[in-house]
Automatic annotation (TrEMBL), chains A, B:
GO terms for molecular function: DNA-binding transcription factor activity; transcription cis-regulatory region binding. This is LacI family transcriptional regulator. Pfam families: LacI, Peripla_BP_1. Residues 2-56 form the HTH lacI-type domain. Keywords: DNA-binding, Repressor, Transcription, Transcription regulation. CDD domains: HTH_LacI, PBP1_Qymf-like. It comes from Velocimicrobium porci. The keyword DNA-binding applies. The keyword Transcription regulation applies.
Length: 331, 331
DNA sequence: TTGAAAGCGATACCAT
DNA sequence: ATGGTATCGCTTTCAA
């Protein structure tokens, strides 16, 4: 393992000079510079980031904790974050918590010891207060709220508005008997989405009817059957996210329902797969790209300025596709 | 930032002793031990991994370079790798190369400087020889072959066999006019898959007919149209992977073909989505879990033993689902 | 059992 | 412009 000293020796200069050449941190006599450059080539020297980080007290590491990648939404988010981090000279240490509280704790610990410059949390579990407060790294909660925001920044889409948009769209499509798949209420995203739905019901004097459903495909599959059983006359389903909507779609079709003629269907997230299934899914788009970028930016700013924005709510948009159909004169 | 010295001072012992307590690396007088433990609690001390790594010359970092996460196959692989790495006390630095040669080079460089203990490469570009040879980290190529294997380990599924399995299955299903979507031949996986197909053709005296297709959904969509145009009598399609098969399925249905009655369809990879679409996709399963585990193990073994297995080929299996249908007496 | 001290590899201040 | 040297935080000989 060749070090800066070896290079210095070979070039006949001091380590300081080698450092200066490498980092262009000061002027160096042209001749010596060339010698150093040559010596670096000759030895195949590669600076040790660990040592550099140790001295400079910045690791250029951003920790990312995702709940699990069953849901491509998090995968897409991770990808955006990686891209943005790379552009800014940061690297990304990826941890997946698998909905496992212990593993998540271990991950936060690990990132603290690694001297990560910040953590982007996408985990949906809200029972992690102490861990989060204890580690005093800047934390950005993405798509999730953390109760007593102690130096914790919070970036998320406008779930409330998204749900309202979706619900109103279903109404414009002429649905008379809408069923809501209710998000797990332990997540802030879930509470907000459900509240949006309820608010529209109140406005229009529509009865609130829902069935609880987790955010994943398997549960969507199970719950879809229940919906048809409990509400045989359903003509519109407001799914809690795209993965669930995809499962619901499958059940509907298997049971012989026509979509959107018999039952209209709308998702949430606009993951890539929502337009790959047979009938492209009408859904609410979260600005994934922007969310990822803002998260990285928040952490970088913290490193520089020492402060961090408290909460940022991003806009969502309705993406009309093939699982819903507007009918004239019915809004 | 509290350091080991602060703890030592507070506990009234030397830094060495604190270190010994933390790492249980030697016996320490019980009383002092308790004092140290207390001091750690009191100060909220967290050891600095950077410093530790620097001294111990091992970073416990595994670099993972994926081509892009459009294809969930890589996402699933990354997830398995993370899990296995975590179990063994390693962390994962994730890089996505986006099919960009420059970025990939930069990533390898970066991981070298970071003193990663190894790199798992899933990138499908084969023009990276020099970079790979220059950095002398242990490298594991996953799902991809690297020409002059210089300390490079190679783990991949048996693409050749997989293709043969798929082709034979289509024949057993009674297909008379099969079209192969040919994988990009710059990838070893592509070459092997195509060779498998050709070998079966030869065996059965069937004409080789194919159209070139990238590994992604968009290209699958485009190529599917071409297939129908060029081979209107097609009754079996051997897609190059699941993402493409999903695209093909969509085009077939949109054009009014019945699957599998009119056209049978088979994919490759068995990504999670292959069973989420309306008709579950018949496909060839790659042992994703095993591949990820082996990759991590290979790197760890290198760290310990200094050697690394040269090539490991894993078995694949046919997953019969709903886009093909066996007909009796036709094999 | 314990502490002092010498690194690990790079940086930056302080002289020169 | 350049070199010597202390330093980042931790680990590990080597003595005591």
């Amino acid at each position: 393992m060749t070090s800066i000293r070896d290079v210095a020796r070979l070039a006949g200069v001091s380590p300081s000079t080698v450092s200066r050449v490498m980092n262009q941190t000061a002027n160096v006599n042209e001749e010596k510079k060339q010698k150093v450059l040559w010596a670096i080539q000759e030895t195949g020297f590669v600076p040790n980031e660990l040592a550099r980080s140790l001295y400079k007290k910045n690791s250029k590491i951003i920790g990312v904790i995702v709940p699990s990648i069953d849901n491509p939404f998090f995968g897409e988010l991770a990808r955006v974050i990686e891209e943005e981090a790379f552009l800014n000279g940061y690297r990304l240490t990826l941890c997946s918590s698998n909905h496992n509280r212990e593993k998540e704790k271990a991950n936060i610990q690990m990132l603290t010891r690694l001297k990560a410059e910040g953590i982007i949390l996408m985990t949906n579990d809200e029972t992690l207060q102490e861990e989060i407060e204890k580690c005093n790294l800047p934390i950005v909660a993405l798509d999730r709220q953390i109760a007593s925001g102690n130096g914790v920044s919070y970036i998320h889409a406008d779930h409330y508005k998204g749900s309202r948009l979706a619900m109103k769209h279903l109404l414009e499509c002429g649905c008379k008997n809408i069923v809501k798949l209710r998000e797990p209420q332990v997540y802030s995203s879930g509470r907000q989405r459900f509240a949006g739905y309820v608010s529209v019901c109140k406005e229009y004097g529509i009865p609130v009817q829902y069935i609880d459903c987790q955010y994943d495909y398997e549960d969507g599959f199970r719950v879809a059957e229940q919906v048809l059983l409990k509400y045989p006359d359903v003509d519109g389903i407001l799914a809690n996210n795209d993965m669930v909507a995809i499962a619901v779609y499958k059940v509907l079709k298997k049971r012989g329902y026509r979509v959107p003629e018999d039952v209209q269907l709308i998702g949430f997230d606009n993951i890539a797969f929502s337009h790959m299934i047979l009938q492209e899914l009408t859904t609410i788009e979260q600005p994934i790209k922007e969310m990822g970028k803002l998260a990285v930016k928040a952490i970088m700013e913290y490193g520089q300025a020492g402060k961090i924005e408290q909460e940022q709510v991003l806009d969502v948009t309705l993406i009309k596709r093939e699982t819903t159909k507007e009918r004239k004169g019915l809004s």
